[in-house]
Amino acid sequence: MINYNENPFKELSAFNQPSPQLKQRVLATSSFALFLISTLDLFSVKAIDTVIDILQINK
Amino acid sequence: MNRESLTDQELVNLTIKNRDQKAFGILYDRYHLKIYSKCISFTKSQEEAEDLCHDIFIKILLKLSTYKSESTFYTWIYAITYNSCVDYAKKKSKIRNIDFDSDEIDSERLKVFHSDSEKNLMSIQAEELQEVLEQLKPEDKMILLLKYQDDLSIEKLQEVFTLGKSAVKMRLLRARERALKIHKLQNNKSS
After folding, report:
1. Does A17 lie at the interface with B, CB-CB under 8 angstroms?
2. Model pTM?
């Protein structure tokens, strides 16, 4: 059995915390994404991976 | 409505049917630390990790209607996280993978028993483990993180990687062995 008190993987995750601003960024983009979803009816698009690729093409 | 008490599936349904951004925000609260800890392992800075984590959440949102309740929600998002991190690593090509000859791994395996490799991996210091992870292949890194950071069972790993039980066990064993090999090389260099 692993002693999880001495698990270096857990220690690593404890160091790593995102900034509080990340949630604001995600929610701001998700608001726009939900607008696109509603306008273009993206939830019914079967080839959503292709749409995601197109959206990311200029990154 | 108290969304906090809703199940993942109920929050997914609210997001899809009502375009409920608050429901999606609760899914973010539940899973962002786990996703972020994977992202930081694949990037060199907090800024890059946050960019990657942001993109993964938007991808999750866009793909939400493809989620099928046969799998648990978190294994589904782990699968998206895994694919996104591997794609990111390939694009950036920053990871210096150390490839080992498969025969060498097989002969190594005879020397190291399953339980020993797990015990040895747990004995690595966190700072050294970070260096080991930086040199591992993305696939190896992710399976080790999911198993030992997030405690995913073999069955849940099967869902994430869409592999059979023995294939998951073999991938896990190989990943541990490669990690130990890299650690050994690092120790040899520094001594």
Report:
1. yes
2. 0.82
Q: Is there a contact between B50 and A8 if contact means CB atoms under 8 Å apart? A: no
State whether residue A53 sits within 8 Å of chain B by CB: no
Record: contact B28-A43, CB cut-off 8 A? no
Residue-wise pLDDT tens digits, A1-51: 455 468 999 988 887 889 999 999 999 999 988 888 888 887 777 777 777
The rounded distance, in Å, linking the Cα atoms of B106 and B125 is 26
Q: Both tokens of residue B10?
A: 């109920």
Choosing among A19, A27, A30, which should be mutated to test the B contact, i.e. which has the most B CBs within 10 A?
Answer: A30
Nearest CA in chain B to A51: B62
What ipTM was reported for this prediction?
0.79
DSSP secondary structure letter of residue B151: -
Question: Does B135 contact A at CB distance below 8 Å?
Answer: no
Structural contact between residues B110 and B148, judged by C-beta atoms closer than 8 angstroms: no
* Phi, psi for residue A55 in degrees, rounded to 5: -65, -30
With an 8 Å Cβ cutoff, is B67 touching chain A?
A: no
pLDDT digits (tens, 9 = 90+) for B102-139: 445 554 554 544 568 888 899 999 999 999 999 999 99
Phi, psi of B149 (to 5 degrees): -95, -40
Report the sign of the C-alpha dihedral through residues A18, A22, A24, A30, in that order: negative
List the one residue out of B26, B62, B148, B97 whose CA is nearest residue A6: B148
Helix (H, G, I), strand (E, B) or coil at B123: coil
CB atoms within 10 A of CB B25: 17
